[in-house]
Amino acid sequence: MQKFLKIFSILFAGIIILSGCRGDVKKSRAADTITIAISSEPKRLNPVFLTDLISYSVSGLIFSGLTKFDKDMKIKGDLAESWDILDGGRKIIFHLKKDVLWHDGNQFTANDVVFTYNTFISPSVATSLKDNFGSVKEVRALDPYTVSVSYDEPYGSALESWTVGIIPKHILQHKDVNNTSFENFPVGTGPYKLREWVHGQRLWLEAFDSYHAGRPKITNLIIRIIPDTATQFLELKAGSIDLMELSPMQFNNKTGHEDLSSDFVKYRAGSFRYGFLGLNLIDRRFQDKRVRQAISYAIDKDAIINSVLRGFGSRSTGPYPPEAWYYNREAKSYAYNPQKALELMIEAGWKKGTDGILRKNADLMSFMILTNYENKENIKTAQIIQSNLKAIGIETDIRTLEWQAFRHNVISKHQFEAIVLSRAYLWDPDIYELWHSSKTKEGEWNFLSYKNKELDMLLENGRRAITIADRQRIYHKLHELLAEEQPCIFLYNADLLFIAHKRIKGIITSPAGMLHNIAEWYVEQ
What is the pLDDT of residue 13? Predict the structure, then answer.
């Protein structure tokens, strides 16, 4: 399930909040059920079409890949019990687990793996994830439990690419995979199967008795869609929610309540996402890197970390997490320096008018910042940015959109000037899908429309590199280049904060997300 931290830009739709009242909580909670709050509804569940964190998180409970990440973000087997890497990385032989069943009782085989790959790359399938598998030349079944994957050239992220959820050939082979009907009745090999989806309200997932890694100990997962944080807080006090992500303010303040501290446990994992100010680089005002660097210098990132994150984060210098082996600690950092910012703007040809706003010929440095209204962190971050930029002569307005509308305008249509958003770290250095110049079409993940030939070359060479030493050298250079170019303004690394009822045991914190090992959780009464 963690693979989609690599495939696409993970965009956060909001923050969830819960609370509890001791007397009612203990009476109302079923022993075999936990309830989770999310702030927006999954768009798709079919692994072929996942585009955001919430869809990925729910889909990952239903579908399994050949491989998966462990709690330390290292690759291990899932549907594949082992593999052999041959011909200098140009071939991988996957040995599949036997007796794995689909949720409908049919046998999982190598043919399902081949079908999944062919679906991803089919020109008739409208997915933005076609390049997920790298330079694959051929995927074929050697026998029912052996898959051979051949590559035109070595692909450094090959094992990571196969964490993608495998889909069932026997159900989808004669159907239009683009049709969303499969979303309402998905069939996977994961720990949970979808029992019911009441759109706009909830999803009910039920433990799969024949799950290949052992039946989950918690039978029912009720995933409730609650966009409004005030409503979530009422649900918290009513004792009808067990698990949720917390904002830094909630982590510090709300969980200090006596009832909460005695009935719930707070969890904190290492940095797993970063916040950024994205600029639409089709706009000529943002195409000079001096302008982007000036904007970066003008923003007080420490103020954002201290005020918005309440100290649960650190400055970001690029799209890699500080804990990762490919993170470059020497990458350029832009400390708050409004004077330097103004000097760079003047150097780039911008001058203040009588109204104090920067101008260059017919262009006015005034633009709209979009963010999603469900995420209070993003709104507060945008407000700090607005104040900082005004101090050097850049005028901005802030507009909030509901998440689905935001996603349509920004990702699908590229209709924006600037955005404040969060992305999940990929936990693999291959960020080809996010930054390569070939990925700037509508619906693709380089929606900032950044194009740089040197970066393209690094991304391509990184995919071909096999050894850790070669990959580290390439991705250190890539990190350095993005820090210098500031194709987006990297703001902060944020910690993962969440809370769960104390009766839920077995939770292991991981940057992979709060549902990382949910199939191993159990309830203690």
Answer: 38
Give CA–CA dist 444/429, Å, rounded: 18
Q: Are 511 and 20 in contact (CB under 8 A)?
A: no
- Residue 19: the pLDDT is 34
| Cα(454)–Cα(505) distance, integer angstroms | 48
Strands 366-372 and 418-424: parallel
Measured between alpha carbons, how far is 244 from 222 in angstroms, rounded to an integer?
12
CB 244 within 8 A of CB 498: yes
Rounded to the nearest 5 degrees, what angle is found at the Cα of 9, between the Cα atoms of 18 and 492?
65
Distance of CA 107 to the CA centre of its chain: 31
Q: Amino acid identity of 252?
A: N
CA diameter of the chain:
76
Q: Which residues contact 343 (CB under 8 A, 6 or more apart)?
A: none
Q: How far apart are CA 188 and CA 102, in angstroms?
A: 6
Burial of 295 by CB count in 10 Å (0-12 exposed, 13-18 middle, 19+ buried)?
A: buried
Is residue 504 a contact partner of residue 525, using CB atoms and an 8 Å limit?
no
Which residues in the chain land under pLDDT 70?
1-29, 229-230, 254-261, 425-426
Q: Hunting for tokens 């739709």 — which residue is that? A: 13
Question: CA angle, 495 as apex, 246 and 251 as ends, to 5°?
Answer: 30
If 0-12 CB within 10 Å is exposed, 13-18 middle and 19+ buried, where does residue 123 land? exposed
Cα–Cα distance, 363 to 354 (Å, whole number): 15
Q: Contact 183/59 with Cβ under 8 angstroms? A: no
Instruction: Supply the pLDDT for residue 255.
Output: 53
Structure tokens at 181: 């009907």
By three-state DSSP, how is residue 59 classified? helix
d(CA 121, CA 65): 17
DSSP annotation of 89? G
Tell me the C-alpha distance between 431 and 136, whole Å: 17
Number of CB atoms found within 10 A of residue 274's CB: 25
The whole-model pTM stands at 0.80
pLDDT digits (tens, 9 = 90+) for 13-22: 333 333 333 3
Give the β-pairing of 220-225 and 33-38. parallel
Which pair of tokens denotes residue 36? 């989770």
Beta strands in 73-219 (DSSP E): 75-77, 80-86, 91-96, 136-143, 146-151, 192-198, 202-207
Q: Which residue has the tokens 């420490």?
A: 302
pLDDT for 426 equals 63
The predicted-structure confidence for 260-301, as pLDDT tens digits, reads as follows 668 889 999 877 789 999 999 999 999 999 999 999 999 999
Q: Helix, strand or coil for residue 167?
A: coil
In whole angstroms, what is the distance from residue 91 CA to residue 113 CA? 16
Beta strands 366-372 and 146-151 are unpaired
Tell me what pLDDT residue 16 has: 34
Q: Exposed (0-12), middle (13-18) or buried (19+): which is 322, by Cβ within 10 Å?
A: middle
Tell me what pLDDT residue 525 has.
Answer: 73
